[in-house]
């Protein structure tokens, strides 16, 4: 049997960061930068007004106060988006909008509220120091400066900066496209009528949702019967749009080993019993032209656990993240159970508590059962080490936090 | 001046949860349920095999062991998706796939590994108790049971359960559609050439990204000049697809009050100076046929802060969440600064530390400046109360955590 660590290492070795691609800014949102972004101009590009008011020479208003206003001639109005290329003569000013560049020789802005709002002539009722209410050129970013580094995620605050320095396109690791294929003769689509013996395909929908939460593009294929022909055709069809294929089911110990039989000739996939519970048989390798493939068990609880333990880190690696894993916390369990020897057990638990008072983990459903109702109310996976067979009330376990 | 709390209350009062809508399962992902979901069948629907093996009568194999195998006749093979409607006679068994329903009278499953894998006759090498390796009917969900409650978010684990109980459609608060409009004569699209005085539109892109991170559908309109006609036309055009409109800019104290002038006749929007920094003038109300609108400042740092403080909670309320706010932590600041009197200041900080050792907040850039470069490297907003004017090294402040 392979250890969980060995199989995880194999999954991560099978994938790599998506090749860098230049995309428009809107498509970069949520992606990881694949370039250091250099500013190609100053931000702001000139000394600009920090608020609406009058651009003045500070020296002209040095003596101004509420009781001793200074009158200045208003030469012009500089609205946002325009510039005044003339020099400001002494004794004069211009009305200026927040964000507009100051005329030459102006070195301060008096807020409109500190004036009589005159249009030809204005009374200035406060002194202004050199540079007051002015955002100096390059205060935010200097031409040539690295504004964001490769490896940073492009979120809203990074987009604001990229846009402000004029970047309409940026090079990122593009969102991986993941094709999800559920295999099983028994599977029918939710909403359809299930005959006796049939079950609804939970894995296709649940894995697509889990991938969507990671932020990747997902294509869910309707469940494929456990037969070589249809599975082979489906995989061949889907490879054109897949950066990664995830299958569930079709790994029966019994007469049907469809996934193994089909994947054998299509690529280099190895299947192992992995020392974990739930889930046991797992596959990893490549198909077609080197597209990575991860094969998960058919049981929907086991598939979700395998997703969290193996697929999510692999997908994050493809998306270019350095940090691949869910946060973990230590929690004491509120009730005991027996855990299988020689296997790492992932128990669906509800976490309660806080960093200050500590966390408590309560199994959602009996740990040995595979209940979707329990999975749906859990918010973490408690990890029982391979050599621990008796978990007691109060035992401290590491827990993967599933809901932030 | 209105307080931050008053303006937030007005924003939340202007919106409400999206009217419930029945959608297909794939479209429900990431939405909040607007119905209690009842199971309309048991899960599993019958006693099913928990693993691949032989379905037996436990009484027949009570004496079986490695040294004393019991031979049974193999009547049939039940593959996944099929059923065997016959009763199992004593002394016989059926080969059964994991998940397949047991034949009548069978009450245990012997794992294939504990047999000689016979096809006509099989040697059973272990005893099996009544119910062993069987998932009893309704073990997971009972017909008529509430499986998920209104108000729960539909994530991967909830989708697995909904699919498994056969729900192809579900009633949710659909994703709000938010239209983002930046207003300003000075704005040009990133990637285009900016003439002197022009600046790149950061707000449109950054707010669209921020909304995308909240999980809503966003339509970004290219920046609109600060003129009544174009702004009115844009708003009228966009209202058909907007559940919420967010504007930035066009709120100048100076000669241009375009947003106010246009919104006046179009709806009922009030504008207030809100006692906060950055950002001051903010609008809230309705336009057209009652579409809520939130007006934010034009400065991109102020707009992002206003997004976090007002828009994000409002959008989450529309999406049906009960929990509207970012998590907060207390952090001690690593350096002091002066904070404006009578205003709640939101300072962009980088948080470091842990729940155990405590958190430290370091301002990203001087708190009084509005730098996008500092915003991009911050991961939290430290909140300085209205009456605190001197923040000292070691002062403990509440911080909104922006990055999970």
TrEMBL record, chains A, B:
It is an enzyme of class 2 (transferase). It catalyses: adenylyl-molybdopterin + molybdate = Mo-molybdopterin + AMP + H(+). Its cofactor is Mg(2+). It holds the Pfam family MoCF_biosynth. Its EC number is 2.10.1.1. Residues 179-317 form the MoaB/Mog domain. Pathway: Cofactor biosynthesis; molybdopterin biosynthesis. Keywords: Magnesium, Metal-binding, Molybdenum, Molybdenum cofactor biosynthesis, Transferase. Catalyzes the insertion of molybdate into adenylated molybdopterin with the concomitant release of AMP. NCBIfam families: Glp_gephyrin, molyb_syn. Belongs to the MoeA family. This is Molybdopterin molybdenumtransferase.
